## 1
Amino acid sequence: MDAFDNQTKHDTLIHDKPDSLTHDEKSPVLEISGLSTEYPTPRGTVHAVRGVDLVLGKGDILAIVGESGCGKSACLLSIMRLVPPPGRIVKGSVKFRGKELLALSEAEMRELRGKDMAMVFQDPMTTLNPAYRVGEQISESLRVHRLLPGFPGRLLRKERERERERVIDLLKQVGIPSPEHRHLEYPHQFSGGMQQRILIAIALACRPKVILADEPTTALDVTVQAQVLDLMREINEELGTAIVLVTHDLGVAAEFCYKAAVMYAGQIVESGGIEDVLSSPLHPYTRGLLKSIPKIGQRRELVPINGEVPDLTDLSEGCSFAPRCREAYSYCERTSPPLVHLKNGRKVRCHLYT
Ligand SMILES: Nc1ncnc2c1ncn2[C@@H]1O[C@H](COP(=O)(O)OP(=O)(O)OP(=O)(O)O)[C@@H](O)[C@H]1O
Ligand SMILES: [Mg+2]
């Protein structure tokens, strides 16, 4: 796999979703509604996620974009029920294949994590244990979900051999060179990019139905980034795994994702097909972020907008973006805009469309 192969493979600016993966609205894999998460702090309560609604069908790939501090990570952590206390989910529903996750016990949630829904965190070293060989960490994840038999001490030679092959295979899949030797190494013996790929190998090990990836490629160089994205796409196409990708890179979002959701101050302010959102953004916030359409193969970061992200402990009654919005009128400062549903599945939270 080569980064540049990947770039030349797509000759259009934004590719269409393959027909075989058409979103099945009737049976979403992940259905989130009214999700709200807060972090109590000495300064007051941070309203990090405020009434987020998202629906992902089999094979969907959704980009979540937005400035730093808008609640993207808090949203993914909430979906996995991994919000660090005293932070907590205060409202809403997260359904995975129709099952309400917010009603499950912690033990049931642990069973589901990794096996059905996996998360790739931005910083690999927060997830990898420096004291264990990477091969052991991958087989541990397979064992936890009973994809490999019981305790390592009790495994038969044949079973141990099969486990070793599976681990080597996964490392090979994520492009780790000489996996037959390197599965015996410790995390610090790998570069940051390789550590990230090992995490992705762990996430892919159980062939989950949903992968939540929080800026998985930000720290990687372009070649490795393309390998990681190619790998996630292969899993998506082969198994129909739904993917949520948080990214600051609009080039990556345009190339890799089918849908986009734009987050601001804990809310989704605009969503729709990736092509629609990137080529004709509706919300003044999205328009501010996307000063121009990204081109394939070119890293295009979000453009800073004048003013600051609001303090999430002290939100006003009106539209959170109004203080920075060139198109705001006095009504916007007083009243919070509803989510307006437009054609082609587009949604926007702005008084310009009410
Ligand atoms: N553990 C925590 N305790 C208190 N506040 C937190 C905690 N984690 C996040 N926050 C706050 O919640 C809000 C949303 O943070 P979050 O990390 O979700 O932003 P983000 O969109 O992922 O930003 P970035 O692009 O920088 O990763 C921010 O105001 C942040 O300061
Ligand atoms: Mg984040």
Note: Residues 39, 41, 46, 48, 66, 68-74, 84, 87, 312 surround adenosine-5'-triphosphate (ligand 1) (CB under 6 Å).
## 2
Amino acid sequence: MTRSSSRTVFANGLVFDGSGAPPARADVVVEEGRIVEVGLGLDGDRTLDCAGHLVTPGLFDCHVHFMVDGDFSPITHANTPFSLNFFQAAERMERTLASGITTVRDAGGADLGLKEARDKGLIAGPRMQLSIAILSQTGGHSDSWEVCGAHLPGMLDPHPGRPDGVVDGPIEMRRKVRELVRAGADVIKVCTSGGVISPRSDPQHAHFMPDELEVLVAEATAAGRFVMAHAQATDGIKNAVRAGIRSIEHGVYLDDEAIQMMLDAGTYLVPTLIAPAGVLEAAERGVGISEVIMDKARAVVDVHRESIGRAIEAGVRIAMGTDSGVTPHGRNLEELNLMAELGMTPLQVLAASTRSAAELMGVGDEVGTLEEGKRADLVVFSGQGNDVEIDVSDLGPRVAAVVQDGLVRHGDLGVQS
Ligand SMILES: [Zn+2]
């Protein structure tokens, strides 16, 4: 049989394909950037040995911020030349890809140029959906106003590629969503409550009124965009779910009613468990963080975990997200262990990091599972041996190879033939 293009076989790994089938030993055959076959005893022009390894779909992180890297201090922003931050973001994207993350949502900060630079092959990184700016009300989570009366520099400062995200009232909201779509937003990010890393907002207060959120969702829907809500306060979560927002980010103060509403509406939860502890850790590393923010971070760490644990137990749809940027990029897979600690099985953790995340982002036809016809994004992890049980507690250091569109972008696998 003659073939017009070359077939690469990722041979003999324990394959978690994301379809819901139990992990099984299999070969994954890739041709022209797509998966063409998954099965046993398959041949190809080139065989990469995955024996003793775990093979998964490329992992997702549904909540990152590439324009910041574990140091959100205004002093650092003030001392960073404007264009330097784009080069820094490129390196963070590459680091994220090397950690096994092949698709992300940037939840605020990155603009269209970063995404296009990746799509054109100028820089390496995960596939991206962008939110560009973060919509918040005056005094909300993305309002940089400080009590001295000045705006301090940060990762959301408006520039020609990134509109300002502070907005009030349904009329302004309509225009703002249109501006974001014009600037290249794939998803609209809104803060329906206060948050931790903002000077004057309270994580326990709901932000925006239902009429504002209604316009927001209607405009986003008209443009074919989903909405993601930074939502920590109980009422902010409920307002978001009622408005038809697709995912709740952080979900710090979930109560039973909020959980039931999410189940009924099919709303996704993106936990970002490593984020609050990351703020405290950043302070230990010497990042300048105000006492107000430190107090808020301390206050949410435990209640956040307890809240997410209850949502997991109730069966809320979970998609993996870290808020990396609050923590340094590249440590994304630490989140998987935290999800498991709160009661998810290893297979549920992997599903939340692959298929479910792809469904949340609306890209499940192309990526998220290892099935015929899908783009060949996959991760190969060492240390599986002959075991069929999967351990997600330390996957980060076990990344042996990261494959995107059928190309090994990071790592090395032994070639058998
Ligand atoms: Zn975030």
Note: The radius of gyration is 21 Å.
